[in-house]
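FYI - complex with nickel (II) ion, inputs then prediction.
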Amino acid sequence: MKITFLGHATLFIKTTKALILVDPFISGNDLAKNKINIADIKPDFILLTHAHQDHVLDVEAIAQQSNATIVSNYEITTYYEKKGFKVHPMNHGGNWNFNFGSLKYVNAIHTSSFADGTYGGQPGGFILSADDKNVYIAGDTALTYDMQLIPMTFTLDLAILPIGDNFTMGVDDAIIASDFVGCDVVLGYHFDTFGYIKIDHTQAKQKFEEADKKLYLLDVGKSIIL
Ligand code: NI
Ligand code: MN
């Protein structure tokens, strides 16, 4: 499985059987828009953690050109289904087997509304299981005890956690989250995109190191392979 960071909370995941895009926000991201060409992105699935603009801005353009299936909570998929897009609705605690593996939609503590004010359901995260790996994509979330439920049924190979603070967990809480989910290998996301979430990379990595954990912070367009 190859996971490419496309800036902010946008991920492009290549599994043996499917191309999966998560929370596309590229054209509005000054750190990504000149490096990533949206026209080149043709996923089979688009996973959406919640409805905020910094997670869904480029959904329609990319779904249009790729005919991808949008996977999210019921409210978000209904919103896109009404616009004619292909969707797969899920909700919290639910697991579904797809052609590439499985997805479970799990709790996140945050809010979720579209830019036009439409209710976006309750926000969530995903556990992606594919190619014999389990990856936790936390979405925008606070640190929450619900994370402790995850290692009861999944042994994670990677936890993708927000670390930018202000709107989500910051670095210190992400270190605790990494304990809660039972995974010491973390890919940080949701940082640096705008002023409120700028972080000190060196300090963040050092804090993870001191906790005997590994924090990856990828440049836009860079990947890790599991
Ligand atoms: Ni959000
Ligand atoms: Mn966000």
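The longest helix spans residues 171-180. The mean pLDDT is 98.
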